[in-house]
Amino acid sequence: MASTVNERPGYGQLLRTPGAWTFLLPGFLARQPFAMLTIGILLLVNDTTGSYGTAGTVSATAGVAMALFAPQGGKLADRFGQAAVLIPGVIVHAAAISLLTVLALSDAPLWALLVAAVPAGASTPQIGPMVRARWAAKLDGSPLMSTAAAFESVTDEFTFVIGPVLATALCTGVHPAAGLVAEAVLTLAGGLLFASQRRTQPQASRGAAGAAAGERVSALSVPGVRVLAVVMLGIGTVFGGMQVSMTAFTKEMGEPGLNGLMYGAFAAGNMIAGIACGVIAWKLSPQRRLLLAFPLLVLATTPLWAAHHMVLLGALGMLVGLCIAPSLITGYTLVEKLVPASARTEAFTWLTGAVGLGQAAGATVGGRLIDAHDASAGFLVPLGGTAVALLVLLAMRKALTPRSESVVAARGVGHREPVSVD
Fold first, then answer.
1. Helix axis angle, 110-122 relative to 82-105, nearest 10°?
2. Residues 297 and 323: beta-carbon distance below 8 Å
3. pLDDT 10s digits, 214-241
4. Which DSSP string corresponds to 330-368?
5. Coil, helix or strand for 79?
6. CA 277 to chain CA mean position, Å
7. What is the 3-state secondary structure (H, E, C) of 155-203?
8. CA–CA distances in Å: residue 403 to residues 103, 175, 413
9. Segment 78-133, tens digit of pLDDT
10. Residue 297 CB: number of other CB atoms within 10 A?
């Protein structure tokens, strides 16, 4: 790496890092189920019960369990090692998904589905944060760290795009349970393969022996992380609201098979913007980028409820997708600046869990609105969720300024580097 220090760090250089592909490929495979779980539950339970509200409630239960247990899994992985957490975790997850699928197909009562959804969500492996931790272990002190952060953010975008499309296609084209079955298989196979790559996993801390007391910081004690968690909740409501509303919309139009195509338009916008955000050499600070990008997302969700034509909704869905990536990527990038290294894995899991929680909440509220009104009412969820998150972001925006930059500004030096575009 030292021989290329004069080159601008890029994706090509990053991917030539020795040993990177040994965890990138299984990591990509294993992280897909994260975005397949809630939509897979939603489609299966809706098919067996005929109620979007019931399906959204079961899906939300899994999402809440995932969000609450994800940071604990991150802490355990830091302490005992990733393999020690992943191997039993993926086995439990596959068993929980199997139980939930059998119960749904057997027309089990709602309480049974809710009970089964808890371990299904709680045991979802947090592969994305674990991959980030492996990059940090291999690239400590390297200028490629910022490139790795961008690469992982783009990969996260693909996860939230490809996973739901794959689950939707399987549920609508093969069998209502096919999405969840594929989720369980991918989790088990990908998780075990990823865990087997022990040479690249960070060294386990096993307590406080390896860290000074001052470095033991909870990620949620950082105000900026709490603000970013709310932002991610808002983004999650877009994913959840779009999934349930597009499913209902295509069914109302008499073309349920087009659901995958409609969500694919939303996914395409997400992919395009995600790739662009990863290759652009930004001059604006991440804080300013987020304050510019998130209001655009709110604006993009505004006309969704009024779209009553398939082509128009597809175009608006693509626009929303284009506006999601800048906010999501910038949020993860800010963690690198706001959180000490000893708490970053936990911080990443809080943000990832917040997206999952928002996705579940969006599906639940959207399902209730659809049951009470129609598919158009479900599209109010992305607008409402992002609008509330924007209010919090604007009110708490100062928390997103890294403390080092605040100190420099207070001393009156170093203006030119952070505000050169002014």
1. 160
2. yes
3. 445 677 778 888 899 999 999 989 988 8
4. HHHHHHHHHS-GGGHHHHHHHHHHHHHHHHHHHHHHHHH
5. helix
6. 16
7. HHHHHHHHHHHHHHHHHHHCCCCHHHHHHHHHHHHHHHHHHCCHHHCCC
8. 50, 52, 14
9. 778 888 888 998 999 999 999 999 999 998 999 999 999 999 988 888 888 888 87
10. 27
